[in-house]
Task: inverse folding
């Protein structure tokens, strides 16, 4: 079985996001970019499935501008066998990405398509409030968390979202609002990976060197017969309203008094 | 305009997040005919339909899809159902709350209908213009939908509070014709089980008061102190990602960007440093109280009331001095 993993180049989690003064978007020029942490988890999972003898090949794919090659090299250094880069300078919305992935799946015929859940969170990362987890607007999707579900729909495959633990039979535990839902999926399937699934490995120096000679195939949306269509127009991007700091109280009694008589919430 | 709202139900009642979706649908424009779509099987579905018919003054009709194939909220079956209902009714908008149900189903259904969905909408200005948070809530993006109908939205229920009034006379209920429903994919995903913590306490998403603990609580045992406090306040218990990762409490209690978004009247954070991803989940709370021994903790920058001190002393003192809930 072949496993295809879609990975995405995003603004590094350690970068503080800044809204551009002209409100057209967030600043992505001269900003450090990295692989989306959820995608690292997806690659790690694919590698573990391969190492367990259940898959023969791991193919990393990414879409977007030329710099996506750097992200693919990171995936190859982690252990992916080869990579495919769909080069496009258009803004790719999840529907476009889903269609491109479907086209790639039709060519490559993997048994499993893995994607990172497209929301990252680095809460309490050594307590620094400036640390945040972010996505490049040009890459797979921005906080949309849609692509996996969409491509599964296009392929008529079952989907397991938010997988937090997978077993060989592709029994998927997914986090839902009410708890953990267990599903059994027939292969081929699309699975999106969540944070607690695994701890991704670091690429070692020898593997980084080795990755330089691994093949990266370049294709265009045209070659895949996918038309890039835009259904959504960004009107403006603004900073969210800030909450003001309140008062520091001196005792529990004072707190109870304030909650009772000032805020009137208890 | 005409809107289809995908509704979730539990124990014969429509979930309040789905009622919020109707509230959101209401702000799309005048003369909006709002249909609610419910699926499932058996008597609890029919009870939920009765509830749906009067749960909000703006509901025009309730559509019920009763089938064993829809017994569990699987995306495969639901997406097919939405496609079928859309092709029959040709709605201008399709909405769902952006909980795990909506996030799973809406994109798949959108792909089948060949449109781009817009997720996590927090404000609606007109029928095709919406505001959604991006980059973990560090920026707000106003977008305009320019594609073909249906315009598909998932909405943050905390941004669209449920009104207290209900519909005085029940809206008509009709059954969805499922004679052509089925096909190959439906059996490719099978429901095995749902594991959840049974709890007497109110649901995190709807609780009026939420009490949250961070990593500073140090153990699952210590979290029990918070649970006792929550009991006294009639509050729900939440946790930060660090506390969940450390195994103190189960995943579904996580509040923040990748957990639940809450907006209670009172949010009390104990030993929570206030990382931006956690704050993204509590931003809309009315009153925030923070208790932390570090006076420089970022949580104090957003808290209305702060107490600097040892939570292992403050929690028992609160437990003792807080008035009994009424």
Result:
């Amino acid at each position: 079985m072949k496993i295809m993993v879609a990975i995405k180049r995003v603004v590094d989690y350690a970068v503080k996001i800044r809204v551009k003064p002209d409100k057209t978007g967030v600043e992505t020029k001269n900003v450090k970019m990295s692989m989306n942490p959820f995608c690292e988890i997806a690659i790690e999972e694919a590698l573990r499935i391969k190492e367990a003898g259940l898959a023969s090949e791991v193919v990393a794919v990414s879409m977007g501008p030329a710099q996506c090659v750097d992200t693919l090299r990171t995936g190859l250094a982690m252990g992916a066998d080869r990579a495919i880069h769909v080069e496009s300078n258009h803004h790719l919305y999840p529907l476009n990405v889903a269609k491109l992935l479907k086209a790639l799946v039709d060519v490559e015929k993997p048994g499993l398509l893995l994607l990172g859940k497209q929301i990252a969170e680095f809460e309490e990362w050594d307590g620094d409030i400036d640390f945040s987890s972010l996505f490049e607007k040009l890459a797979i999707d921005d906080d949309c968390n849609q692509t996996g579900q969409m491509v599964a729909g296009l392929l008529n495959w079952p989907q397991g979202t938010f997988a937090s633990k997978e077993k060989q039979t592709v029994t998927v535990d997914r986090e839902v609002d009410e708890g953990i839902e267990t599903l059994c999926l027939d292969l081929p399937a699309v699975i999106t990976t969540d944070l607690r699934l695994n701890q991704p490995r670091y690429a070692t120096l020898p593997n980084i060197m080795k990755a330089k000679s691994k093949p990266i195939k370049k294709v265009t949306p045209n070659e895949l017969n996918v038309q890039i269509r835009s259904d959504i127009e960004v009107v403006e991007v603004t900073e969210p309203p800030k909450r003001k700091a309140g008062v520091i109280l001196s005792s529990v009694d004072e707190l109870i008094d304030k909650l009772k008589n000032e805020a009137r919430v208890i | 305009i005409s809107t289809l709202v995908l509704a979730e139900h539990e124990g014969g009642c429509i979930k309040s997040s789905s009622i919020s979706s109707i509230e959101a649908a209401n702000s799309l424009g005048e003369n909006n005919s709002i249909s609610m779509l419910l699926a499932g099987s058996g008597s609890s579905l029919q009870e939920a339909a009765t509830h749906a018919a009067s749960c909000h003054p703006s509901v025009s009709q309730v559509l019920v899809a009763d089938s064993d194939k829809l017994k569990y909220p699987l995306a495969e079956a639901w997406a097919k159902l939405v496609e079928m209902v859309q092709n029959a009714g040709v709605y201008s908008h399709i909405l769902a709350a952006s909980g795990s149900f909506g996030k799973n189903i809406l994109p798949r259904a959108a792909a089948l209908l060949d449109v781009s969905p817009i997720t996590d909408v927090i404000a609606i200005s007109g029928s095709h213009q919406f505001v959604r948070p991006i980059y973990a809530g560090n920026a707000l993006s106003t977008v305009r939908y320019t594609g073909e109908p249906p315009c598909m939205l998932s909405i943050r229920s905390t941004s669209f509070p449920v009104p207290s009034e209900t519909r005085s006379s029940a809206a008509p209920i009709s059954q969805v014709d499922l004679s052509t429903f089925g096909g190959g994919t439906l059996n490719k995903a099978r429901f095995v089980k749902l594991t959840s913590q049974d709890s007497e306490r109110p649901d995190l998403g709807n609780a009026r008061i939420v009490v949250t603990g961070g990593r500073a609580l140090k153990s699952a045992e210590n979290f029990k102190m918070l649970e006792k406090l929550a009991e006294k306040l009639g509050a729900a218990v939440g946790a930060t990602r660090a506390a969940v990762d450390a195994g103190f409490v189960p995943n579904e209690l996580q509040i923040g960007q990748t957990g639940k978004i809450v907006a209670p009247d009172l949010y009390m954070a104990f030993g929570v440093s206030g990382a931006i991803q956690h704050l993204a989940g509590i931003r809309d709370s009315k009153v925030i109280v923070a208790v932390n021994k570090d006076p420089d903790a970022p949580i104090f920058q957003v808290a209305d009331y702060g107490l600097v001190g040892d939570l292992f002393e403050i929690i028992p003192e609160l437990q003792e001095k807080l008035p009994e809930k009424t």
Summary: Confidence is low (pLDDT under 50) at residues 119-144, 162-168 of chain A. Residues 198 and 253 of chain A are 45 Å apart (CA to CA). Chain A is about 25% helix and 25% strand. Chain A has one domain: 2-240.
